[in-house]
Amino acid sequence: MKLLNVGIGLMLAGSLSAQVISTDTTTNAPLNSAQNLLNSTKKLTVGGYGQVDYNQGFNDTASTNGKLDVHRMVLFFGYKFNDRVNFVTEVEFEHVKEVYVEQAFVNYRIADPISLRAGLILIPMGIQNEYHEPTTFNGVERSRVDNDIIPTTWRELGLGFSGNIDGLSLKYQVYAMNGFLSYDGGGKLRGKDGFRKGRQKGAESTMSSPNLSAKVDFYGIKGLKVGLAGYYGNTQSTLYDGLSNSDTTGLAEQADSSVIGMSMVGFDVRYTFKGFQARGQIISSTLSNTKEYNEFTGNDLGSSMFGYYAELGYDLISIFKKDAKERLVLFGRYEIWDTHATVAAEQTKNHGYRRSAITTGFSYHIARGAVLKADYQIFDNEAEGNTPSNQFNLGVGVWF
Questions:
Q1: CA–CA separation, 38 vs 42, rounded Å?
Q2: What confidence score (pLDDT) does residue 94 get?
Q3: Considering its fold, how many domains does the chain have in total?
């Protein structure tokens, strides 16, 4: 009850300084909720986004119940201490019953082109990990490449620098932070969903070695945004905690077997011109020590992962009314992701982990910050004898 009262109090305090979704039509620089909060001139700024979904699968051999879900409801809070120091946080309620903190960082602007950022930070990889508000992407659900390989929403604790070099139309980010947790009494990483179970999310995180994350975005051509990102380091393991530096019992070897070396590279592009829009990304991750890791944990983690998608869309209303406040975007997306792109010697490759999805549908933006969505998806994989599955989705999304 106290938490509810605090939340209501904050909402009332921020009611006159609610977040206004700023656009990038002037600078073309990429913007999301966190950046909008940082750009606010108010002392306290409140914002949020929400997503309600209906998913109906289809199966030729059996009936399938539909799933209705208040997928996520999120509150953003930004506080401006002075012209140089801001605090940004994102509190998320998932599936009604789960509560997470997705961002919580202090931003200290040292000079116009450079800011120090410290706290719980989104990893700058791909598009949707940083730009995951439901009105910013087509499709009821986020892309599967962003779900299984990146994996969104991916955030960890750390610090680093970010800023814009306006003369070159570049945005840069570079952070040192904790990595995925690969072992905490059992192996957490596996072939089916790669790194997803290893996200620590800032909850009593373990760090046995720091990881490095960096991204550069170019926005110098109107309507075009191009990003290049990299991530490098080792996963984290609880077996190093309390391990003697002069261990001769074999525990050090076990600890080493519980760690994965990883490097990830991502390239993404977004382009809009009048009613036309296109986006796509490629993500590749290379892993080391997977043979030893799988033998120790009994898991089936691959030695590399690869995924990409390409999406095209067009605002049909713009054909008839160029200055319309509403938008009806008809879109199609094709994606492939493989969490067993390669495997270690003597490991059996699971061809069912090379998957594809075709998604077609529309996004009806009934107001700025409110969207109705519908799409149809066809999922397939390369496992012998596999039968493609189908799913129809409806969704409501808001961002304010």
A1: 10
A2: 95
A3: 1
